[in-house]
Amino acid sequence: MDTSPYNIHIETYDGPFDLLLDLIRKQEIDIHNIPISKITGQYLEYLHKLEELDIDVSADFIYMAATLIYIKSKMLLPPDPLAGPDENVDPRSDLVHRLLEHEKFKTAAQMLHQRREIEDHMWSKPDLSLYEGEAVEGELVVSLVDLVKAFQTVLDRRKEITKIELRHEQFTVAQMMEMLRKQLVASEGPVSLVSFFEACATRHAMIVAFLAVLELVRLQAILLVQSALFADIQIRKHKMFDVVFGGGEAVGQIDEQYQ
Q1: For residue 18, which of 58, 56, 51 has the smallest C-alpha distance?
Q2: CB within 8 Å of 14: residues ≥ 6 apart
Q3: Which of 199, 192, 195, 185 is nearest to 234 (CA)?
Q4: Is pTM, for the whole model, over 0.70?
Q5: Are 75 and 188 in the same domain?
Q6: Residue 216, domain extent
């Protein structure tokens, strides 16, 4: 008689947003109209399975469970007839915005990873720069891989005890691009990439900052450089800086891509 234990397979996720996106996409749910009661039940069911298998559940997953329950309770209440139009906001709107931003970040990260794999398998010398451009004498142009590593390092350091703060200031990618522009204009030299990320109050803001850097690099408004290999990454103005921010059209259209 075979007494070997049977295997139980359960999906693993990097974080609660990955789990939520998977639940939404697998069921082809409209992300702008999430059936919060159904998704909350499925989310809690997944956490219960982890508990049954004696798998530790991180604070991020617990925080999201509390957030979903809070949203569900808000949606059970009738709208306040005395409240103005600005106060009767859909309780799901903040969650939807975060999910969309997280999905954009995951897509960008996957694209960077795919490019890295292609470069690693090329026979010829790979072009690891973010785009074609020249650094000044004594500088090294930073690769896509280095940018992702720097961002991931700062993101990992931000992992701390999660507090339930359902309301916090939100930034769009265009607004974050403008913040970086002001820093570069005010600075007499380059701006530290790590400092720019670390100045963000939340992990969500850091992800938006990362997307802003990618967009400005794509538009050739900024250049990411190092004074030496493994040195801190610096952001400095590049050839299209004044053109990109002067016209305003390119920056103004950025947020339309993240709707």
Answers
A1: 58
A2: none
A3: 192
A4: no
A5: no
A6: 128-258
